[in-house]
Write a structure and sequence with these properties.
Distance between the termini: 130 Å
Low-confidence stretches: 1-192, 207-216
Mean pLDDT: 73
Strand content: 25-35%
Number of strands: 58
Helix content: under 10%
């Protein structure tokens, strides 16, 4: 194996075909059995002005020449700052300019594993990319194009050690060009640009024609402070290639991007990385990092650790990564991704897209039309101002739409959702949800689950969906266009109209509907429902099933529809229609109009001068003391009494207390001196004790 060391400067001479081999300080290499095979050549070298590159010859086809570093040596290149390419092989590369400026380049361990050559002496047309590199962690090497000014590779036979000289050797077949236009070779000891210690490097103060190559610039292991170039001039001065990456590696680094679209990796440690004006990519890596996007449409990746990520003024993409991160989008239409951990995300201005990821996240859209998804975990979502779209995802979420016309979906578990001040579209989705429309004309859908829904202010549309829902329509709905429509859908629902003229529809199953204040419309639909009109002139329709319907205070309309229904008028002048089935119709106070229609109906007029009609079927007309008065105009009117079909019922009836008077075609019934009823188109002698039941 060929071993070469250098301690003193050596001059190669002016021979264009000089083959320079370096050996301590003697003119010979005492141990060079041959130059064939895979030889190891440690090379501390230096190039001065006029130098181009180092050229290697392979002895035979299929063989390799390897170049590796020698510990503690430093390679120094001295040249003017124009048209020079660096190529070296040692632990450290240092550039020294003609004006005395020195640039520490990088630690490198270079090994050439593939070499092109020719055994016939012809020129190799393109030597760029003719080698592979094995580099130490964090090291970089500058590739070069030796096509300018270099001769072709030539085959090499056995070397004659006796012909080795300082300036060159041999003029016969063994004379080979090793270095083109070499002026001087010297050793030096200069500090590298980046060390394992704490470095402070501003690329504006770095001078080099070519700095580094590969895929990245490294700050190595210390707590480094690095400022990257701000513009093209500074980058050219420093030899900085903005297409390559910068790695902070270990340590708690502070890295400031420049004016290019930089790609910066903090790697391990608690790093602070600040972007410049370009569209930068900042990757914090491991540790609790702080990444600040500032200007430009940046991409910020927190990685592992509890990170602080600040987007800046443009449309940024931010991913917090693992652990509990704090993310701030600031201005611009940002994409903010919490990923794993309990994250806090603030969208700020702009139409932002915010995804919480796994964990119990706090997500705020703030201003703008934001799209927010809590994804996994028990999240808190707030749309802020603007027409937002919010979805809780998996977990028990708390969602607030805020100001603006929002679209909100709860997700797969039991969520708490508030719509805000404007007209919102809210879906509880799966789970036992709480929905609050608040202000505005809202559309609220409980969907699956036993939901609790509050319409709030405004004329809302509310649908309970599947499950046993409790619905509050809300108060203060003024005007016919601001009324509330409530649909229970399936399940045993409970609905409260509260204030305003509401429409409540029970849907399937056994529902309870309370109109409360206002002129409400209540429809039980399917199931055995209970309808309560409350205060106001209400319309109540039982629908299918055996319903209980109560009008309450006001002039109400009550309809039993199908089924054996119970209708109670309450106060006011009420209108009853029993429809199909064996119904119980109770007028209560007021002059009511009651029609049993089909079925075996029981009709009680109650107090007031009521108009009663049994309809088809055997009906019972019920009276109690106090229902009539002391004059005929205070008695009820029975319009369709059918003898031997219909009957009268008086509590504690005694035939001896009954008086009958013929009044034209009608019969007046007086019991204990109280005028109870006027039976239309019926003769007095037709009515007897058989027509009364106790």
């Amino acid at each position: 194996m060929m071993q070469m060391q250098m301690q003193n400067p050596i001059l190669a001479g002016d021979s264009p075909n000089a083959w320079l081999l370096i050996s301590e300080t003697t003119p010979r290499v005492p141990s060079v059995p041959d130059a064939m095979g895979a030889d190891l050549v440690p090379m501390p070298v230096a190039l001065r002005p006029g130098a181009r590159a180092i050229n290697l010859d392979a002895p035979n086809a299929g063989e390799t020449v390897s170049v590796s570093a020698v510990a503690a040596n430093v390679v120094v290149f001295e040249f003017d700052r124009d048209d020079v390419t660096i190529f070296g092989a040692n632990n450290a590369l240092v550039v020294r300019f003609a004006d005395g400026a020195v640039l520490n380049v990088a630690n490198v361990n270079l090994e050439i594993t593939k070499v092109l050559w020719s055994q016939t002496g012809e020129e190799v047309p393109a030597l760029k990319y003719f080698f592979d590199l094995d580099l130490d962690e964090g090291a970089r090497f500058e590739r070069f194009d030796p096509s300018a000014g270099l001769g072709g590779f030539q085959s090499v036979g056995g070397l004659d050690p006796t012909s080795l000289q300082y300036g060159g050797f041999g003029t016969g077949g063994n004379a080979r060009k090793f270095v083109d236009e070499l002026d001087n070779i010297q050793a030096a000891s200069l500090p590298p640009l980046f060390t394992p210690d704490n470095d402070n490097v501003n690329f504006a103060n770095v001078f080099a024609r070519t700095y580094l190559d590969g895929t990245q610039y490294d700050a190595l292991e210390g707590d480094d402070v690095v400022t990257l170039p701000l513009n093209v001039a500074i980058a050219a001065q420093a030899g900085y290639d903005p297409l390559h990456d910068f790695h902070g590696n270990g340590g708690n680094d502070f890295i400031v991007s420049g004016g290019f679209d930089d790609k910066i990796f903090g790697d391990a440690g608690d790093d602070v990385i600040q972007s410049g004006d370009g569209a930068d990519t900042l990757d914090g890596g491991e540790g609790s990092d702080s990444l600040m996007g500032m200007g430009g449409a940046d991409t910020l990746l927190g990685g592992d650790g509890k990170d602080f990520l600040f987007g800046g003024g443009d449309a940024d993409i931010i991913n917090g990564g693992d652990d509990d991160d704090s993310i701030f989008g600031e201005d611009g239409d940002d994409t903010l991704l919490g990923d794993a951990g309990n994250d806090t995300i603030e969208g700020s201005a702009g139409n932002d897209k915010i995804n919480g990821g796994l964990g119990a996240d706090i997500l705020h859209g703030n201003t703008g039309a934001d799209t927010i998804n809590g994804e996994g975990g028990d999240d808190q979502l707030d749309g802020g101002t603007g027409a937002d779209t919010l979805e809780g995802g998996a977990g028990k979420d708390k969602i607030n739409g805020g100001a603006g016309v929002d679209k909100i979906k709860g997700g797969t578990e039991s969520d708490d959702i508030s719509g805000g001040a404007d007209g919102d579209d809210i879906h509880g989705d799966v789970g036992d949800d709480i929905l609050n429309g608040n202000g505005g004309k809202d559309f609220l859908f409980g969907d699956d689950g036993n939901d609790e829904i509050y319409g709030g202010q405004g004329g809302d549309y509310i649908s309970g969906g599947k499950g046993d829902d409790t619905i509050y329509a809300g108060a203060g709905h003024d005007g016919p266009l601001n009324n509330v429509s409530v649909f229970g859908d399936s399940g045993n629902d409970i609905m409260y109209g509260e204030g305003g003229d509401d429409e409540l529809q029970g849907g399937d199953d056994d529902d309870k509907l309370y109109g409360e204040i206002g002129n409400d419309r209540l429809f039980g639909q399917n199931g055995n429902d209970e309808l309560f009109g409350g205060i106001g002139d209400d319309t109540l329709v039982g629908g299918m099933g055996d319903d209980i319907i109560t009008g309450g205070i006001g002039d109400d309309f009550l309809e039993g529809d199908n089924g054996n229904d119970t209708l109670n008028g309450g106060d006011g002048v009420d209108t009853f229609i029993g429809m199909l089935g064996d119904d119980k119709l109770n007028g209560g106070a007021g002059a009511d109009n009651i029609s049993g229609q089909e079925g075996l109906d029981i009709i009680t007029g109650g107090t007031g001068a009521d108009v009663l009609s049994g309809g088809a079927g055997s009906d019972t007309f019920v009276f109690a003391a106090g229902d009539g008065g002391n004059a005929i105009d205070q008695a009820d009117i029975i319009q369709d009494f059918e003898n031997n079909v219909d009957v009268f019922q008086i509590a504690g009836f005694n035939i001896n207390n009954l008086q009958k008077q013929q009044n034209g075609l009608d019969t007046v019934l007086i019991y204990n001196g109280e005028f109870l009823a006027v039976v239309r188109n019926t003769q007095e002698n037709v009515i007897d004790a058989a027509d009364f039941v106790p």
